[in-house]
Amino acid sequence: MYPSRRKLLTGSVTAATLALARRSFGTEARPAGGAASVRIAVDTRRELGAIATDFIGLGYEISSVSIPGLLSADNRIYVQLLRSLGSAGVIRVGGNTSDYASFAPTGHAVASPKGTVVNTASLRQLGTFLDATGWKLIWGLNLGSGDERQAVEESEAVTTGVKDKLLAFEIGNEPDLFGRGTTHRPKDYSYGDYLKEYRRYKSAIRAKLPHTPFAGPDAAGATDWVTLFAHDEGHDLKLLTHHYYRECAGPSSTMDKLLHPDPKLAPMLEKLRSASKASRTPYRICETNSFCGGGKPGVSDTFGAALWVLDFMFSLASAGCAGVNIETGVNQLGFISSYSPIADDERGTYSAKPEYYGMLAFAQASQGQLLAVDCDAANINLTAYAVVHDWKRLSLQSSTKRYPKMPTCTSPSPNASRARQYYASLGLLSKPKTESRWPAPLSLPKANGSPNAWNPLGTRAAGMRSGSVPQARRF
C-alpha cells in the first residue's frame, strides 16, 4: 500500500516540477492583483506506468561511427558521460547520412554528409563503446540506394561487431520525405512503395540472419505512416519509431517558443500511443531535439534548453512513450549541432552542455512509476510530473527561470544558413533570407571566469581531456 496522499506530498519523494516563465525574456507572469497561487495535487491512486529503464538515449548520424576514437571504449570521458545518464540506454545510429552511406569491410573509413564509409574496424570500435557503456543500439540501414545486397552485408557486419547490444535495425531514414526534395525516390513515393521495399529488405536480411529484430518506419512527420506500419508490421517489430523537432531553425525559433507547449506534439503522441496500443508494440521517438538543422545558436545551447529537454522527456513518458534519442554531435550537414547535449571540439575535448543536464535531471527523477498530477498553474507556464520510486519515496523539484532580453545580430551564423538552405530544399521552409535577426548566445559565467559556458557541476565537467567525469548528483 502507498502512503496517504498527504504523507506523500509532505514527505521526501521523486517528482519533477518545471516552472517555466510565461515570458522567457522578461518578468514572470502573475495574475492581476499579486502573487500567483499554484496548486499541485499528486493522485497516488492513478499510476500512469513505469518509465522504461532504457528510456534515455542519444542519436548520432552514421558518419559519427567513422570518426576514429569517438564512439570507442578508449574514449573514457565520453563513456563516463553516457554512464552518468544511466547504466542502460539506447544509441540510435542513422540520420540523413545513412541513406548515402556505404559499407566497405576493409576500406578506409570516411565521415562525410553524403559519402560516409563504414568499415569492419569502425563497427568493432562501436562494439567496444556499447560494451563499456552498457547501452543498446538501433542501427539505420541505407534504403536510399535501393541495394538490399549491401544492406545484408552491412547487417551481418553490424551484428558481428556489436553482438548482443543490437536492439533493432531500421530500414531507411525518414522515408516519408523520400519524395519531397531528396534524390532517393520520385515525388509520388508513397507509404505503399515504402512497405514493399521494407519487406524486400527484411526478407533478404532474414534469409541470412533469421532472428534479426526490426524497428520502423522512422517517419519524419507523417504519423499516419506509423499507424499504417503498426497495422501491417506491428506483429514483427521491436519498436515503432518516429522523429520530432519543434520546427526547423529560423528567425522564429526563440526560447519563448521552445519553452511553451507545441500544439502539434500532444496530437502526434496520442496517435502514436493509439498505434502502439493497437499493435502491442512500444513506440520510441528515435530522433529529436529542439530545432532541426543543428539547432538555433543562442537558444538550443543555453540554459533554457535544459528546462525544455527535461519537460519534453517527461511529456513523452506521460504519453506512454518507451524512450527517446536526443540528437548530438556532428549533423547531416557536417558540423557539430548547437543543440548537442555533449559538446565536441573535434580535437578530442568533450564536455556536458545544457541539454545534458536536463537529461541528467530526468535520469535521477524518473526511476519509478509515473503518477497522475493535477496542476492549477494560475496562468503561469508551469508543468508538473510525479514519480514514486520502488521504496515509495516521492520528491519534488521546482525550477523557475527568467531570461534577460537577449542581444541580437543582423546576420545568421554560416552553419545556420546552411541548415536553412538544406531544409528549404526539402520544402520544409520558405526560401531562406540573406539577412535576419538571430539572438546572440548568452554570456554565462564559468567557474574559471571565462564566458559562454554553463557548468553547474564544476570545472571538471567542462573542457576535459583526461580524468573522470563527475558522477550524477542530485540537484
Q: What does this protein structure show overall?
A:
With 475 residues, this protein is of the alpha/beta class. It folds into 2 domains: 76 residues, no CATH class; 315 residues, Alpha-Beta Barrel (TIM Barrel). The protein is 28% helix and 22% strand. Strand 15 and strand 16 form a beta hairpin. Helix 4 packs across helix 5 and helix 9 runs parallel beside helix 10. The N terminus and C terminus are likely disordered.
List keywords for this structure.
475 residues; alpha/beta; TIM Barrel; 2 domains; eight-stranded parallel β-barrel; five-stranded mixed sheet; 28% helix; 22% strand; disordered C terminus
CATH architectural name of the largest domain: Alpha-Beta Barrel
Radius of gyration: 22 Å
The number of distinct helices, counting runs of at least 4 residues, comes to: 11
Number of strands: 19
User: Any idea of the CATH topology of the largest domain?
Assistant: TIM Barrel
Strand ordering within the main sheet? 3-4-7-8-9-10-11-12
In whole angstroms, the N-to-C terminal distance is 29 Å
What would CATH call the homologous superfamily of the largest domain?
Glycosidases
CATH top-level class of the largest domain:
Alpha Beta
Overall average residue pLDDT: 81
Number of domains: 2
What is the H-and-E element order? Answer: HEEEHEEEHEHEHEHEHHEHEEEHEEEEHE
- The coarse silhouette is globular
